[in-house]
Amino acid sequence: MTGALLKSSLWHTEYLNPFIVFQHGITEILLSKKTRFQDMFIVRTGAYGKALILDGKLQVAVEDEFFYHEPLVHVPAVLHGGPRSVLVLGGGDGCTIREVLKWNSVETVLLVDIDEEVVRACEEFLPELHQGAFHDSKLKMFFEDGLTFIDNCHQKFDLIISDLTDPLEDGPSFFLFTEEFFGKVKTLLNPGGIFVTQAASVSLPEEPLHPRIVKTLSKVYASVDSIQSFIGSYGSPIGFAMASDKPLETDLTRRRIEEILFSHVKRDSLKLIDGRSFQGFVGTPLILRRAIEMETITYSQQRVPKAFGGQHVDHAA
Amino acid sequence: MTGALLKSSLWHTEYLNPFIVFQHGITEILLSKKTRFQDMFIVRTGAYGKALILDGKLQVAVEDEFFYHEPLVHVPAVLHGGPRSVLVLGGGDGCTIREVLKWNSVETVLLVDIDEEVVRACEEFLPELHQGAFHDSKLKMFFEDGLTFIDNCHQKFDLIISDLTDPLEDGPSFFLFTEEFFGKVKTLLNPGGIFVTQAASVSLPEEPLHPRIVKTLSKVYASVDSIQSFIGSYGSPIGFAMASDKPLETDLTRRRIEEILFSHVKRDSLKLIDGRSFQGFVGTPLILRRAIEMETITYSQQRVPKAFGGQHVDHAA
Amino acid sequence: MTGALLKSSLWHTEYLNPFIVFQHGITEILLSKKTRFQDMFIVRTGAYGKALILDGKLQVAVEDEFFYHEPLVHVPAVLHGGPRSVLVLGGGDGCTIREVLKWNSVETVLLVDIDEEVVRACEEFLPELHQGAFHDSKLKMFFEDGLTFIDNCHQKFDLIISDLTDPLEDGPSFFLFTEEFFGKVKTLLNPGGIFVTQAASVSLPEEPLHPRIVKTLSKVYASVDSIQSFIGSYGSPIGFAMASDKPLETDLTRRRIEEILFSHVKRDSLKLIDGRSFQGFVGTPLILRRAIEMETITYSQQRVPKAFGGQHVDHAA
Amino acid sequence: MTGALLKSSLWHTEYLNPFIVFQHGITEILLSKKTRFQDMFIVRTGAYGKALILDGKLQVAVEDEFFYHEPLVHVPAVLHGGPRSVLVLGGGDGCTIREVLKWNSVETVLLVDIDEEVVRACEEFLPELHQGAFHDSKLKMFFEDGLTFIDNCHQKFDLIISDLTDPLEDGPSFFLFTEEFFGKVKTLLNPGGIFVTQAASVSLPEEPLHPRIVKTLSKVYASVDSIQSFIGSYGSPIGFAMASDKPLETDLTRRRIEEILFSHVKRDSLKLIDGRSFQGFVGTPLILRRAIEMETITYSQQRVPKAFGGQHVDHAA
Questions:
Q1: Which residues are annotated as active site (chains A, B, C, D) (predicted)?
Q2: What's the pLDDT band for B162 if we cut at 50, 70, 90?
Q3: Chains that touch D (3 or more CB pairs under 8 A)
Q4: What residues make up the domain containing C157?
């Protein structure tokens, strides 16, 4: 018989699928609020420090957020070579813009988040995340629906980063994972520009959603690719999907990666990424690449993704 | 308010640390037995199929075991170039020897597991794992303590793979993670031989154990390195530590990796590994490599690892 | 911050309602079997000893089963005064007949259980429950559907005890809580005979089902009453509903109760019941009696009870 | 295979013992605060409405608090016959004084709670509990340690009610369950006065603590008795221990109980108690009365109670 000494009486529970439960012991509640769009908690977890929870799903935790944000930003930025203009959809916690602003090539960053209350709460309660990025002179913030913003935007960008919550049926990010939306995004890319989006869990039982998002991108873009990173506080690896009309060449030597990366980013400003670990993030397992190849379902206005329990599972098909 | 439809009433619970709980819904119990050494369950999980549980810790699940066994075997085998003789300590489920036997260079494999009852149960209830490997003519099995075996063995090996259960204080693998043991293993390696060992979870809160195991190896071997793989059914990534007296060169191009690998292993016999994903498994995050560098504690007979709840945590220091 | 030392890695989980979870740490699996009718586990719980689980619901645990079976049998038996013939529907674990056979007035007991495999498993693995009752010469066992048995039975009884599993939609007991069935049972009662049935949880959030069962009985019988007992291993109190065409007089002095009870039952054969605690079991809280009075919904072939997660909740209305 | 639809992602967890877990799905956090003495949460539970949680233990929930407070107050008050002066130790949520003030015999009530922050939070966030009782002209409140208050008090009382948190080692109520304290309380009772105290869970695995508290009282008082009530939101029944130097006669007819009770309390002001259910609350199961009789351990300054996980378990002996 075995067991363990647990040190909390309050557990945030993620239902990864109907047979997998992942729980965080909570030690303190810093904020509990229903915004206009979402249920928001800011809590202190015992294992990963302070964390933001939206609609029952842990979004970001202070102690391991860089496992999400470093690859999300720096992998496509390296593939681009030196982005100057960047659009971030979502990302209201400020981590993504913080990483973007580490690139000395960047001249302008736009952040578009539907939920100003979340951004303001993160600004106040989670300074470890944004680290002042909200007040950078290169940043402009827009509090509106990503879809509306895209429809009305006349600027173009080298890098567009979609850092949205999961496509929950009741959540605000639902329509931003469809072929129609991906097509609109494409019109805002400069030549050689890259679009990257958070694209659901890629642990085995959650697999369908990620391949379908990638496949949906491939209906719109000439090149697509999939990278992934394990996020400890999620209990599962997350996939990011990249898309561009230029080839996405990930087969780079460690040396070449570092040449590009460290000509624009200070070496000691990163916790995870150098040449070796960059190869790790783009070293997508064969089984996942095969699953993407074999996938036939894509998402559109007619067929929107279905989610499970605040998590990315499209079990329907 | 959120929630989910759960589909089980029986939950196997892994206590990853005092603030993290990971649960599998169980749909069937195939075997429940106390062996001479361990509590053993063979169950059907809803998410990852049939699984072996020893002393309250899920060891291996049919649906994702290759995320563990492919990198454990094929990464060091590629670094070696063409192992002919292989010793496997533990690995009673038969997966490790199954992967070893995919190398056409291999002439002899020895499997040493302390617990014959576990091996026999896996043979009967989990044929998806061993796939007949137990009856391969190149295999010899020994049911005895790894320590005793090592002390009495006069053979030498190109590859020694330690696929043991975690160093639980009450479990049988306790002393096989010490400097003394690692030193004895070294005496059984051929020139250019490589030792690789399962080396605990490497998600953030579990970090101490892995760096200490690697650092302990570095007291005995000229070269050590750390690779990792996310195991969905564990809810965390696992580290493998490699050690040798020859340099362990992981900075290989995708092409070079495939030249070595596929000159010995049939391409379609692998689910995960090709050149690209090999780079993924060896693409150890910078933060983990730094933690290993900074680590000062090593394990010896005087200071054995402490575990948490059937899991790898040495919180003591 | 608080927490606790848990001593199990395998948890049987009862979903009492969508917001209440009650879990037993399991220390051993004695039997895991799908019978023709039900999923059956016999396990050892850490808190309440060996237990029988059917279709995900703990039915009976060795260490506290008398909190269920003593009031179920002895309260109606005392109200009757000296039952000679007793019919038990369900109760395949043998506890109910064990209590019935403590009455020296009893001449004949019939046990009707649909699932012989459950009875045989209890006989073998749970002798602490039946204590040999299955082999009493006064007992006759029938393995068939209670409904079929009732339809074909020409005997009459002083006491009919319905000790069925909850009315789960997928379970075998579904139709045995309807007005039609209760009417058929009535035809098998001797004058002055009493029918008693397990009648669902009576903790607040589970309230609807119990009042409806009682109210359904009142459409068929002149007198109905409700008693209750807290079952530790259920985490909730269970209601029993009694019905008869003679008045059910529970307002008895402690002395009068003991006169009746101990003229038929050996005093030291009971763990719970004497005059004082008998008053406890019939001391139904006012709020529950009021809820029964106010209840307007009854169950029939047209409107069968709906259950929640292996538990008694009819949230639908 | 079974399961359930859960409707929350945040679970308050009570560890009833090392093998029993009871969880409430939380739908809203109203307050999260560390007071000078305790960790305090005021939350909305999905099953029992708003609730107060102190040091990881649910104290009181709006939807079923009367199962605790009605028997705690009205049973000893009926046994007394018509209390005029009442002292309440603890009970900072205001429910106990609310019930006390229903007795028209009562002229003065003193409330002594160590933690003014808890009282103020309950006053603001939980008006359903106190229902204005804090502002009754008969009430005087003292925010100090019960022990200090008792030492300095020169008044005497007909009824002293100890409504404290469990004797957790880290909590503030630790020394108020000892022989020494019970002796001091006795000096403040009028002739014929009664002391009643919350006295831990009385479900089987938690049994030791309750019998020891009762037995400790019996070293100081001529008469002691034990009553109990199932609290749905605790998942277990709670025992109350009464003590006096006059006989505590609980063997009363329903009629006699109602004569006393309803000559002082308005009939429709109670949710649970009338003559019949009063007999229920005093109908302590035989097995518990026997356990109390057999108990030999008592608590003193030298041997204070040990608790489990925010719960009442003295497993030590």
A1: 163
A2: very high
A3: A, B, C
A4: 66-294
